Amino acid sequence: MQLTHSYSGIKDFQGCPRRYHQVKILKRFRQEHTQATLYGTEVHKAFEEYLRDGTPLPEAFAKYSTFVDPLLKFSGEIRCEEKLGVRRDLTPCAFDADDVWIRGIPDVVVLDHEKGIARVGDFKTGKSARFADPGQLELMAALIMAHHPQIHKVKTALLFVVANAIVQSSYTREQLPLIWKKWAGHAALIEKAVDLDKWHPIPSPLCKFCPLPPTECEHR
Questions:
Q1: What residue numbers bound the domain in which 64 lies?
Q2: Contact of 4 with 100, CB cutoff 8 Å
Q3: CA nearest 77: which of 172, 171, 167, 148?
Q4: Looking at the domain assignment, is residue 124 inside a domain?
Q5: Which of 47, 101, 155, 216 has a Cα-to-Cα distance from 139 of 20 to 30 A?
Q6: Which helix (H) or strand (E) holds 77?
């Protein structure tokens, strides 16, 4: 079975392998949109059109301009929602290639080819940055360096526009072997679960949001 991995998919598996199997592998359930997710989609679209096309931010989102305006001041080429993928041998490929292994879509990337520096911004509309995970930025940095060999450093930021917080980190090309080893290890655990067909549940407070019916999981 050819599996394609992503940050969100790996985090879903780590949260609960049983839920991951039912949702991601068997595709028995669809993720239902909530008011919060719909709001996040609207914000992301407005930011993309503002950064890419110069479309003014809607009045409702103008208060978030302090998070997007600095991105326009960096030197370099701005790319929004760039789809990136790598094969199992870590060579770059299209996001939807038949042999894509790990992939991701950074919200915005500013590529300074002359200086060899890229900047990545990922917008978050959650109400708190308390549980921010920079692992997403780490993986995006690795994908960017795979696709842009002239980039030797990636400066990243999780931009919590509602919570008014920023979580920053930076990565260099010298760190790539360790980064890929880490994420390859995460992917290997999913592939092992597929081979063994073992999908153990992990109970947590998030169980109440699980789409599985109580008859199919003792933690529901």
A1: 7-216
A2: yes
A3: 148
A4: yes
A5: 47
A6: strand 77-80
**CATH number of the domain within which 110 lies:** 3.90.320
Q: How many residues does the chain have?
A: 220
Say which DSSP state 57 is in.
Answer: P
Q: What would the pLDDT profile of 69-96 be if each residue is shown by its tens digit?
A: 999 999 999 999 999 999 999 999 999 9
Query: pTM for the full model?
Result: 0.93
Tokens standing for 10?
Answer: 């790996």
Longest C-alpha distance within the chain, in Å?
59
pLDDT, block means (10 residues), the chain with 220 residues: 90 96 92 86 96 95 96 95 97 97 97 97 93 92 98 97 96 98 97 96 91 90
Q: How many domains does the chain have?
A: 1
Residue 1 is assigned to a structural domain of this protein: no
Residue 60: inside a domain, yes or no? yes
Give me 145's structure tokens: 């360096």
Distance CA 49, CA 34 (A): 23
